[in-house]
Records
---
Amino acid sequence: MTSLKLKSLLLTAALAVSGVVSAQTTLLNASYDVAREFYKDYNPAFVAHYKKTTGKDVKIDQAHGGSSAQARAVNDGLAADVVTMNTTTDIEFLAANGVVAKDWAKKFPHDASPTTSTMLFLVRNGNPKNIKDWEDLVKPGVQVIVVNPKTGGNGRYAYLAAWGSVREKGGTDAQAAEFVGKLYKNVPVLGKGGRDATAIFLQRNIGDVLITFESEVLSIDREFGQGKVDAVYPSTSIVAENPVAVVERTVAKKGTGELAKAYLDYLYSDEAQEIAAKHALRPRSEAVLKKHAALFKPLKQFTVAKYFGSLGEAQKAHFNDGGQFDKLYTPGAK
């Protein structure tokens, strides 16, 4: 073989390898609706950190939608390397189908949830309907905008927070069911995901109060301008964990396992926890949380486990077809 031919073959092989390498340096994060601003800031920070520590360049792509819709998309073949969701049930669904590891919650600290949030009320500027707590949401003439709990984790947490608010005051499950039924009678339209619910409230100007994640308050101020909404902290709300997992099915094919793990590991770093706080996601780092005490107002919070066992159990009892939500909510019914 001539040296020219050998050089040509080596060049072809090198190009083929570099093609594989460049394909492997793109990571796709399938995430929930209202996390998009956080990841817009987090991704460049991670890219810089990864370059500094490994010398390698990496590109991060994002896909956003309602948490459950995203989980279904990944299950159906969306080649995400990681999923960053707002409910554990969406990742459990992927684990049950062999898309992520069965023990995904043990792969990272804090049950693989680097941040948490909680559910607040957003009301129109000046709070014209004087909404202060959960019981105000069932008053006649109050229109509530909320995400469909069948399509987004935001909606599931809102439902469970409303149910738990009755239990926290000593009410029974029967009283909680009655209260939640009344609340959904005040819902003129269900959002598909968190961002869709915000658009219904602010762009279509429907509703008096939006139940959503604490983090959405800042996003709205940034996107629509300060003074459009006021945040109302109810007397009690729920701890909403934001779980993450490596999509084993994808990384096995692409060879991106090490990169995917590094991407999720870095969410626990001081820098990432600071970025989370900046976007009103409650950091796990006690030091960072303390530093931002003015932003994260003290709020009596209860866990999902306290009244529902787990999100998986809540899913079966409340949100699966024929569950409690279907019994309580009839579209268009008043």
---
Amino acid sequence: MDVRLASRSGFCHGVENAIEQAARVLEEGRPGAICSLGEVIHNRQVVDRLAEGGLKVLDRPEDVSAGDTVLIRSHGAPPEVIETLRRRGAHIVDATCVLVTRAQTLVRELDSEGYQVVVIGDENHPEVRGVVGYGHNVICVDSPEQLDRLPSGGKLGIISQTTHSPERFGEMVGKIAARGYAELKVVNTLCLETRRRQEAAVELARQVDVMFVLGGRQSANTRQLARLCENVGVRTYHLESWEDFRPAMAAGAAVAGVTAGASTPEWIIQEFVDRLREA
């Protein structure tokens, strides 16, 4: 089978940084527990490898003890969580993606300038939960059906979840603008590398008979890649690794395309490509 890999796929800079910092902390052998609040990245295989090295995954800052080392993952964390960790005497290693840090800063600035801050994003995504904590009464909307959450007037300051597509962000901003607000301040917080990967995935999807998108089930950017490929009209499968592959998925296909989310390591991508070529 002819198997083609997207020109851009796999780890982004923010994910690479988080994993490198986690590995460095584990190698240093600090006293106390070494842990992260939530999984460092949305990839089960990478999380399992870090766990084997001694990294614990905690859900609450209250579970941290004095002297523990806590890694803030690439998604960031709300300021109240950081403050709780400091009060509990934890050593904090901040691996927040620089783009997420910028979004956090923008929320604080827009809020201080008197804007009703609006984040276009999934309110349950860890990045968004961290970002909204930097303002007062920040509103999240992620679909036209949620626009009723917005006030009827005033001035809005709008940013986006970094992993959203430009099309999705633009559609939502357009619908908000149509509601007739006196002032809108829109700041583009989209990740350029995410956009490039999305464009590469769509370009490849138009050339193949079946598309495989590799990445964690909880990875928002991987799910978005799969949606974009499906929208092209090509048969698309979102898999975590080769273990999820079934021969019927490639039945009748002469050309297969492969892309991967920003949390998918190179070894998973390469194994999948190699084995698919042999299938």
---
Amino acid sequence: MRQIAIYGKGGIGKSMVSSHISYALAKKGLKVLHVGCDPKHDSTRLLLNGAMPNTVLETLREKDFKVANIAMEEVVFESTFNNECEGEIYCAESGGPDPGVGCGGKGVVEAIETLRHLDAFNKLDLDVVLYDVLGDVVCGGFSMPIREGYADEIYIVSSGEIEVLFAASNIFKAVARFNPRSGAKLGGIIGNLRELKNEKKILTEFAEKCGTQVSGFIPYSEKIKECSGKGVTLFQHAPDTPECAAFKQLADSMWDNKNFSVPKSMTFEALHTWWSKAKQDN
């Protein structure tokens, strides 16, 4: 069983990208568990036809945090679109505290520990667990998939914008820090394009500088934005499009990937100096 974590700066499109990867892997015939690690609990929405499922943390509260009283079916849900796939997609959301109250990372810790206590990975006979993790790695809970070795393969969703690249660089630092402990390695960067000048070149060079690769590029597209309103993926909304093909290619690239690394990071000053020049180069 392979365990993959998707990280990146908040708002960069991790959940959209992650949902499409999970669906594309299931279309290949794989059994996938998609775990949303965000208090907003909206990572699996596109796989559940727009529905927002009960979260692990909500269910734990209802059961007075007695994991023995929880059934797997209360926190793990089959995708609405499983009948379209050769494989299967299951969905779980960690949940978290209300905004402004408590630590968001607590939900991630509780969710992973609960799923393991329920032996969900073995009972579902999974091929892949995909964690969609909130934002930068600044909290112990959100770094748990890397720190504890629950995710062997790390991918970063990034545009060519400098703030997003700096967030990626900080996540590289976390992967390098925890690698001796957990063995987690970086699989590559997923370029979620924003129509920035020289954006593909910037992302490719940034990856090379940090000792990794670009696993695929997702084009900037209104069709992708439309999916959110419909609560579906491109595979339902616009299957015969270049955008959908890009997700298929990305999932194939990730599944076939053998090139994993312990990445290097960049200071903001070094990043800004290089980025300013790269953005202007023809």
